[in-house]
Design goal:
heterotrimer; A alpha/beta; B mainly alpha; C mainly alpha; B: mainly alpha; MetI-like fold; globular; C: mainly alpha; 2 domains; two-stranded antiparallel ribbon; 2 strands; about 70% helix
């Protein structure tokens, strides 16, 4: 070999050895993980998620996330159950928060305490109300993602028509009883407008009220029903009296109809989800605002619902790590700000409130800022029960309905339901 | 004679009156469907809106993927009807015209299937389809309904009434059973086929429960199921859009009924008389 | 000899070949499930786990202690009795009225029969709106007539009645058609002879029409009863999947659905399915027995 070619050959050799994929690296490439996401239809949420996932995949060469849409929360739950039994769950999923204890208790989720500690995850920055349902048996299993709380919306113009101060939503149930009759509009004996309307027959709203009266629906360990104790009974009796004696409160079991009724002017106030903000913004033709739900003796409480991210245990440590990286990235302040803006859900990080993405958005939609502030201030987590549907809901809701939509006595109905619930919860 | 005439007039008035009352829900549905949003919650209710918002129909059609629901319904219903006519005719021919061991036992089985409450088959069929990996597919919507005890019975009745000579003549000509089924039995049983076809089309177009169980994605929904999901949508649904969607869902089968009312009514009546 | 044996064999093979396309699906999707449900009613299974736990008759034993099942059974019984009696009666009235040539008869018949044709999901949506306590047609009509209004589907005491009323409306047309066919089979001579004897319309009705129609009535009542106590669609849609305020509209089949697909108690749900089959069999036996004893044949 001549002296001139040798360096060239050496150069090629060195380059080749450096850049030639060795068998080990050839197999490496990005770690591919699947994340299941409950989304029944396309729309702004899907676009926002696609945006975020796309950005993540673009920014990282070592991880590739594929997002799979799995229907609504219930279908997501069923698919997950089937997959777990079949032995091929996804690496991560977004899951309705009240379903988490069941999976955690079954041992199929990865406890996140260590991962969070190693990543110096700033739990102080997560809204306290939202962390509540992420723990089971003292361990962390989930990171909040898609959260909303109950919210009260009120019709400012209706208040004006009733001769009330415009921005005076009632802070307590007693105050509601006082001003409610003025807000009710009748035509003959036909009620054209109720003072307040809500899905009060469901535990989703009722739990917040029980907290607000100083009580709890179930014990902290999820084993004992407490909804037949004095605070809950008082809450239920208050609702019943407002509905049947004062006739200013309308219990509407049709969840979807409540927002429609508000927009159509059939109710001066509604208690609904913070998620309805966009719908009302786009459809209401009157002045309106958000306000804390009337409070009992313990002050207003807005319970938080929605979904959290979880990791599944039946996967390689490498993919677990990758999934954790994804979740950590998604729940960073900037990204939760972005998702909150696009979806109408709460920003999971309190520091996200000062993120320019959100502050710009709030300038255009001041109501969104107000709603989020109320949610974060008065928010509280939901009960933590291993099987909420069979253990609590199937007894509590009929009892609430028997009182609010029937003629049952509150203490009796709740006692009855609590006895059955305790039998089931104790199993 | 005048009392007879008065009686007839009274009866006719009663008929018209009852018919109006019976039809009110449909009038109300149509009236709501064309109302603008502002006129839904008026008191007293308006029957005739100030403007007829026909745009509600397009709005309802596009708010949920109704074109997809419609396609699914058409596909599934057509497949089921065709399959049932084919399998039912074949079985009916065997029971009507052929002799074979086990015939009475098998016929008894087909009859008792007819009377079986379908609820007892729900869970096992769901599990079977899941094991085959066919949940949330057209197969799940079609396969369980491939055969029909009722259709077999109905068509067999008709085949029994065909004179033997026609078949004898065909046999002499060298026709096999399949040929005789196709060339002789089926054409003569056209009324029964039409009646049964219409009935089963109606039953399966309107089916809500089974699609509810076996479909989980929005693309696989049939129209009635799509309508109900529309009702439950978290996005909230105005009554006018919901009524418009309802009209669209019912329209195909109502049109079919109007065109073939005679067959529908005859079919139901025949079921009744058979007892 | 051989040719006829061969042709017999061919006939048998043809028969089975013709039966196969329907036999296989029926075996897989009807006969097998019937047996499988029976087996499932003896286990505890959550539909998803690969193992089932054999519990013998425990599911059946749990039924008497199940307060919700009691409520559901009562709901179903009340619903069945009122809808069947009301629907058959109304259908009979309509059939009597339509049993004569009249102007636009097909139109009236079509109007009464229309609720049978329209998908139940659509009817349920319409009646959901009709029953709206504030602005629905029902309360408006009641107010217009000066009658008291009701909360209808929003009240635990009236929700089931709301559905019952709607279903009487829905089934009347079907009953009418069947009874009309039966009426047209009553020989005119019987009426002629009775009229010559001086019988007026009430006598004609009770002495001739009703007895002659008794097989049809029996058939209709039994078939309607079996249909009624298996009701699901309007229950689900009009209660928005909940079974009504305080389970007031939950019926047997709805309860089956809830147990199997919401609580994943497949064993218990299958036991309920067998309960339903048992009741259907009872009804059919009742029909056969009553048919022998009460029905008048001429």
């Amino acid at each position: 070999m001549s002296r001139r070619t040798l360096p060239a050959v050496l150069l090629v050799l060195v380059a080749g050895l450096t850049f030639w994929p060795t068998p080990a690296t050839a197999q490496r490439g990005p770690v591919a993980i699947t994340v299941w996401f409950p989304l029944p239809t396309g729309g702004p949420l899907k676009e926002a998620m696609d945006d975020l996932v796309g950005r993540f995949n673009g920014a990282r060469t070592d991880i590739k996330v594929s997002l799979e849409l799995t229907g609504d929360y219930w279908q997501n739950y069923q698919k997950l159950q089937t997959a777990i039994v079949a032995g091929n769950p996804p690496d991560a999923a977004m899951m309705e928060l009240m379903q988490i204890p069941e999976f955690a208790g079954a041992g199929v989720l990865v406890p996140l305490d260590d991962l969070a500690r190693q990543a110096d995850f700033n739990f102080g920055d997560v809204a306290k109300a939202l962390l509540g349902n992420s723990y089971w048996n003292g361990k962390l299993y989930a990171i909040p993602w898609q959260r909303s709380t109950t919210m009260m919306y009120y019709n400012i113009d209706a208040f004006k028509q009733a001769g009330l101060p415009e921005f005076s939503p009632p802070p307590t149930w007693d105050e509601l009883r006082r001003i409610g009759p003025k807000l009710v509009v009748r035509q003959g004996d036909q009620v054209m407008r109720y003072a307040i309307e809500g899905n009060f027959n469901h535990d989703w709203l009722f739990e917040g009220l029980v907290y607000s009266f100083g009580g709890k629906v179930v014990s902290d360990d999820g084993k004992k029903a407490l909804f037949n104790e004095a605070p809950a009974v008082r809450a239920l009796t208050t609702l019943r009296d407002l509905a049947k004696k004062d006739r200013i409160l309308y219990v509407n079991p049709n969840f979807a109809q409540i927002v429609e009724n508000f927009v159509a002017g059939r109710s001066a106030m509604i208690v609904h989800s913070s998620f309805a903000l966009a719908l009302i913004t786009n459809n209401a033709r009157f002045r309106w605002s958000v306000a804390p739900i009337p409070g009992g003796p313990a002050g207003p409480v807005h319970n938080a619902g929605g979904g959290n991210f979880v990791l599944f245990a039946r996967t390689t440590p490498e993919r677990q790590r990758a999934a954790w990286e994804f979740i950590k990235w998604m729940t960073s302040p900037a990204n939760t700000a972005f998702y909150s803006m696009r979806s109408g859900y709460l920003p999971v990080r309190t520091s996200a409130m000062t993120n320019p993405v959100l502050t710009d958005y709030f300038r255009k939609y001041p109501m969104a800022k107000k709603s989020i502030e109320i949610s974060l201030q008065y928010g509280r987590g939901r009960m933590v029960v291993q099987n909420v549907e069979k253990g609590v809901r199937q007894f509590l809701v009929p009892a609430l309905e028997a009182v609010l939509l029937g003629n049952a006595d509150p203490q009796q109905a709740l006692n009855d339901a609590a006895a059955k619930a305790n039998a089931e919860l104790g199993k | 004679m005048t009392s007879r005439a008065a009686g007839r007039a009274a009866a006719y008035t009663a008929v018209v009156g009852l018919a109006i009352v019976f039809f009110l829900p449909f009038l109300w549905m149509f009236s709501t469907a064309v109302k603008p949003d502002a006129e839904i919650f008026t008191y007293p209710p308006r029957w005739i809106p100030s403007v007829w918002k026909l745009g509600n129909f397009t709005a309802a059609w596009t708010k949920a993927p109704f074109s997809r629901f419609f396609l699914n319904s058409v596909l599934v219903t057509a497949a089921i009807t065709t399959l049932q006519l084919v399998t039912g005719s074949l079985a009916a021919y065997a029971f009507a015209r052929l002799r074979f061991p086990g015939k009475s036992l098998l016929f008894l089985a087909y009859l008792s299937i007819m009377m079986l409450p379908s609820q007892v088959t729900l869970i096992p069929n769901f599990v079977t389809l899941r094991r085959l990996g066919l949940l949330n597919t057209y197969w799940a919507l079609i396969l369980p309904f491939t055969a029909t005890g009722f259709g077999t019975f109905l068509i067999r009745q008709h085949f029994l009434s065909i004179p033997q000579d026609l078949f004898d003549a065909a046999t002499v000509d060298g026709a096999g059973h399949l040929r005789m089924l196709w060339a002789i039995a089926l054409p003569l049983a056209r009324p029964a086929l039409a009646t049964f076809g219409l009935l089963t089309t109606m039953w399966h177009w309107n089916d809500f429960f089974w699609p509810l169980l076996v479909t989980s994605s929005i693309e696989m929904r049939t129209m009635p199921l799509g309508l109900v999901v529309f009702t439950h949508s978290e996005q909230g649904t105005s009554w006018n859009l919901l009524m418009a969607a309802g009209i669209l869902t019912a329209l195909p089968i109502v049109v079919l009924f109007l065109v073939a009312q005679r067959y529908f009514v005859q079919g139901i009546a025949r079921v009744g008389i058979k007892g | 000899m051989t040719t006829s044996r061969r042709s017999r064999l061919r006939e048998i093979l043809t028969a089975y070949a013709f039966l196969l396309p329907s036999l296989v699906p029926l075996a897989v999707f009807t006969l097998y499930p019937l047996a499988n449900s029976g087996y499932l009613s003896l286990v505890k299974w959550n539909l998803l786990s690969p193992t089932k736990q054999f519990v013998g008759a425990a599911n059946y034993a749990a039924m008497p202690r199940d307060a919700v099942l009691h409520q559901v059974s009562t709901n179903t019984a009340l619903y069945t009795v009122v809808v069947v009696l009301g629907g058959v009666l109304l259908g009979f009235v309509l059939a009597l009225l339509l049993n004569r040539p009249m102007w636009l008869r097909a139109l009236w018949r079509g109007i009464f029969f229309l609720p049978t044709v329209v998908p139940m999901a659509v009817l349920s949506a319409v009646w959901l709106w009709i029953y709206d306590p504030g602005f629905g047609l029902m309360n408006y009509a009641l107010r217009w007539l000066g009658l008291p209004t009701s909360q209808w589907l929003h009240s635990a005491t009236s929700a089931l009645w709301a559905i019952i009323l709607m279903m009487i409306w829905q089934t009347a047309g079907y009953n009418m058609v069947i009874l009309l066919a039966g009426l047209q089979n009553v020989p005119e001579e019987l009426y002629e002879a009775a009229r010559l004897d001086g019988a007026g319309p009430p006598a004609l009705l009770w002495r001739i029409t009703v007895p002659m129609l008794s097989p049809t009535f029996l058939f209709l009542i039994i078939v309607s009863a079996i249909q009624a106590f298996r009701v699901f669609d309007p229950i689900f849609v009009m209660s928005l999947g909940t079974g009504g305020p305080a389970n007031s509209t939950a019926t047997l089949v709805f309860y089956l659905y809830r147990q199997a697909f919401m609580f994943f108690e497949v064993g218990y749900a299958s036991a309920i399915a067998y309960l339903i089959v048992g009741i259907a069999v009872l009804f059919t036996l009742l029909q056969l027995w009553l048919g022998k004893r009460w029905v008048v044949y001429d």
